[in-house]
Design brief:
10 helices; about 300 residues; mainly alpha; flat
Length: about 300
């Protein structure tokens, strides 16, 4: 069997990382579309916009939505290229994640179409967000696996506790998207603490908002529980905790600021960044926590042979 570095196309790690970054930018662009109230900037039309391929003469809402769709098309092409390269690898896990990314992008296109045709239903928008964050995470896994295997690092598996924390981060981001589009973001205008009080007169709106707050608290607890594993990658751990803390603070500011669009956009971006960092840390922690270990193994092998 060929050595690991011969079983992974050389361009795959960098390409997958670049496409993962593009997927993150796409989520940020989607957040801007939401924050600027441009979700129906092209009306109820898809894939055309204002009865044309280009919304010439359209306002900035139309151009914001059109640009978001353009980025989605670029992402689809990028993921297709990643999957094509990954299928040349002999690593089953790598191929599986690459095909999963392609399937998630296909689902994202359908969900994006549904959000427009059905006028931004909160449930569909939340699943759209869930799928978008999953695409970022899956592409990160492809990049990490290809990078590690391409340097003889051996088979990688994520650590269970950080993996659970990463899953919670994805769910929290999706729940936040639902809260925003369901109009329940100010259900507890007096402060997030009201969402945790039983019997609050706010009814279903408070329950929806409370679920988002509860998921956030469980996420913080999961990160604390996974800290012994995550500390194996101190840089990633510090970034993840920093993003999580900023996201929590931004959530409080968001309510105090009456859902100011700029705060909403930053809050959403921090949520996606937290999910991505915890996810990457889970993989690194599961393989010993040394992101450079893969580059050292061939040297040790040569030394042992001599």
């Amino acid at each position: 069997m060929p050595p690991a570095h011969m079983r992974v196309p050389r361009a795959l790690p960098a390409l997958a990382a670049a496409v993962a970054a593009l997927a993150f930018v796409l989520v940020l662009a989607g957040g801007f579309v939401t924050a600027s109230d441009s979700g129906l900037g092209c009306g109820s039309q898809w894939p055309v916009c204002r009865n044309a391929l280009l919304p010439l003469g359209g306002d900035y809402h139309a151009w914001a939505e059109w640009a978001h769709r353009l980025l989605a098309g670029c992402l689809a092409l990028g993921v297709a290229a990643v999957a094509t390269l990954a299928l040349r690898s002999r690593l089953r896990l790598l191929r599986t994640f690459a095909l999963a990314a392609a399937a998630l992008v296909a689902a994202e296109v359908v969900l994006g179409m549904a959000t427009v045709l059905f006028a931004l239903p909160a449930g569909v928008v939340a699943v759209h967000m869930l799928d978008a964050v999953a695409i970022v995470d899956v592409l990160i896994a492809v990049a990490y696996l290809a990078w590690r295997e391409g340097r003889g690092g051996g088979t990688a598996r994520p650590a269970p506790l950080p993996l659970a924390a990463a899953a919670l981060a994805v769910l929290t981001a999706a729940a936040g998207s639902y809260v925003d589009h369901s109009g329940d973001g100010l259900a507890c205008a007096a402060g997030p603490a009201c969402a945790l009080r039983l019997g609050h007169p706010g009814g279903a709106a408070v329950m929806v908002f409370g679920l988002h707050v509860l998921l956030g608290l469980v996420l913080v607890s999961a990160v604390v529980a996974a800290a012994p594993h995550l500390r194996r990658t101190p840089g990633l751990f510090a970034l993840a905790v920093g993003c999580l803390g900023l996201q929590a603070g931004m959530g409080v500011a968001l309510v105090a600021g009456r859902l100011a669009p700029g705060l909403l956009w930053v809050h959403e971006g921090l949520g996606v960044a937290t999910a991505a960092l915890v996810w990457l840390a889970a993989w690194a922690a599961g393989t010993g926590g040394d992101l450079h270990a893969g580059t050292q193994e061939p040297t040790r092998a040569v030394g042992a042979a001599s």
